[in-house]
Amino acid sequence: QVQLVESGGGLVQTGGSLRLSCTASGYIFRVDAMAWYRQAPGKQRDLVARIKDDGTTDYAAAVKGRFTISRDNGENTAYLQMNDLKPEDTAVYSCNLKALNSRGMMATYWGRGTQVTVSS
Length: 120
Fold this sequence. Notes:
This protein is mainly β and 120 residues long. The protein contains no helices and eleven strands. Helices cover 0% and strands 58% of the residues.
């Protein structure tokens, strides 16, 4: 089975930085994309950043210029470098993986999330 584990969340002050990591384990035939989502209490889950297999990326407008997504293909690990953090960035950040599984079917996997809290 494929599992995703996030790390790197924490409490920071406005303007601070954090680097989130997401490591996928288990058999993955081919990765289609890895992404970071976030969800604050009472809010919907929103896409923060995505990186496709070809290396192309996209970001939510609210984080452009501040966040950077990257991926280590060999280790199936995704990173989210977050700079100039703001209180509105406070949320649970979850890692998402879309990949072909061992049966040749596209599947979506989620990590359990890591809390990011930004104080003013």
